[in-house]
Amino acid sequence: MDDDLGVFGWQDYLVFAAMLVLSAAIGIYYAIKDRKAKEGVQGYLLAARQMNFLPVSVSISLSFISAVTILGVPAEIYFYGSMYIWFLAAVVWVGPVVTEIFIPAFYRLGVTSAFEYLEMRFNRTIRLISTFVFIVQNVMYIGIMIYAPALALSQVTNFNLWVAVATIGIVCTFYTTLGGLKAVIWTDVFQGIVLLIGMIVTLAVSVNSVGGITKVWEANQRGGRIEFDNFSFDPRQRTTFWSMGVGLGFLWLSVFGISQSQVQRYLCCKTENEAKKGLLMGFLIAIVCFIVILLDGFALYAYFEGCDPLITRQISAGDQILPLMVMKIFKNQPGLPGLFVAGLFAGCLSTVSSGINALACVAVKDFVQPFCGCSPRVMTFVSKGMVFLFGVLCIGFAILSSVLGGVLQASLTALGLVGGPLLGVFSLGMTFPCANSWGAGFGLILGMALPTWIYIGSTLYKLPVQYSGAKSLSISDCTVMSSNTTNATLSGTTTFASTTSLASWNPTTQSPVTEGTPAIAELYYVSYAYYAAIGFGTCFIVGLLVSFLTRGYQQRKSVDPKLITPLFDHKFFRCLPKSFRKWMWCGLDREEMGQGSKITVVSFKHTEAYVGSEASLRDKSVIPEEGPPSYYNYNGTDGAFQQDVTYNNEAFTGDDDLKL
């Protein structure tokens, strides 16, 4: 390993600046292009619901691959080994659940804010509480997404911390305010390409620097990093197949099922099928990127195998190790450090821009529009103002993060602590017609309280080393030996920084189990990966119990069937008794309800197509107010033609758009 460290030169600044300028230019382009658009708030916040699935899929994939992921996953492999790869098992079941339950539900209702559903299903109080929790959580999370990569870079390069923070915040706020969701998505496409190129180049050069892929594999075998067989059911084990594949699965289900930033991406697609294709394609793209980043982690260990930079004090936190390697291997290749930084910040810009757009959307739809009868033009300006406001708030929290270390660590776990209970509320309402607002309220509160209590306890009682899975580190090959022993073991306590990875890894003294530790501490040792699942389970169970105690069962038939997703009517559950499935559908028989209610469809515009995802044909301006009637079978429940229909002797099936 080379001890010399490169510097960030003018070529690197040029590459980095080019990425920022092009990102801003996309926002300016769409601001000019859509300045006379008539879609108003829908056009600004939902791209007029006319996006193709391909750009949306790239945008969705970047929800997996943030700047924190780029820094944290290689550090995870380096310090803890390869069990984290089982995170991919979560993708296998999360994708189908989202496409079968959540996307159809939101399309069926034609909402803009995901939290509109909660008012329809429960009441406005549940909606506003959930929205407020979401806003607080995301302002903190986005602030840290700005601060964490900037801090890591500043400590191993000559890149100024506050310049980096200001650059990310200002550029994101600028192009998101101007161009809305359309600019966010197309900027994500550009940034995704930059990110992937940067990671592939880093992988290629790092593998070459240690002698090839065979050397990388051998080094990781010697260091015990190759591990795929931990199937322990012990929830205290930090990374196992179950904690990664199931525990983190609930976290990702909350992100991709009910998070506003994702719901907006689904709703901006032309049809429900386009949204589903966008999600599944996005998962495939994310898997490819994730595998590249995992391989970066293996190359990282091979590079530092005999001279750990944490022990030798070259870095002070684990998330700085990848930037350190980049500055070493690219020291004689001007421009390549800039490419890595551009890719890293591209992931950050994507997360921040989609986040502040989502915050503006829920603020406008849930707190402003219900109490303000403004015109669409005025609401568009209000939406832009909200984007700017939340951009400033997130920059402010990024600055605040530099002095609030404890709050910083706590907020990094917020996605799991809040996302799980919010997922529980939505799932409770969508799948159980007996659930009522009392159950939803108590479930949400206790669902947040229990994992938060466990997390606070985990900061007081450090995880014993036998549960951490930490791997041994060595400084035996260092040019200048440390006074410490040549072999050391990493601390068993960490703070996991995001939904996917470690963004601020600070080693502490190992914490073995000691006599006198209270029995309750065993609860605090539960892996961080289960926080979302615990919040979800608590919310769901408490919500059902309270709903039964408050006679929610007696009110089930008054629930609008459109608000219930017939989960147990799915083909996978057809083996269940029909009586049970009927109970799940508010006590009604869906077959008796009929799949094709008659509606009147009069003259059509020949240049337009009916979009099956909309709850109403009239919403798409396809049905004039008056004219000679023609009758077609139309399902008002899910906004799709369920039976074959004809128009001018042409046949269309229920799965097709009716192109006229």
Overview of this structure, please?
This protein has 660 residues and is mostly helical. The chain folds into two domains: 10-412, Up-down Bundle (Sodium/glucose cotransporter); 594-659, no CATH class. The chain contains 23 helices and eight strands. The strands form four sheets. It has a two-stranded antiparallel ribbon with strand order 1-2. Strand 6 (645-647) and strand 7 (650-652) form a beta hairpin. The chain is globular, with a radius of gyration of 26 Å. Residues 405-411, 481-510 and 592-660 have low confidence and may be disordered.
Number of domains: 2
Mean pLDDT: 78
Measure the end-to-end span: 66 Å
- What's the CATH architecture of the largest domain? Up-down Bundle
Could you name the CATH homologous superfamily of the largest domain? Answer: Sodium/glucose cotransporter
CATH class of the largest domain: Mainly Alpha
Could you tell me the strand content as a percent range?
A: under 5%
What is the 3D form? globular
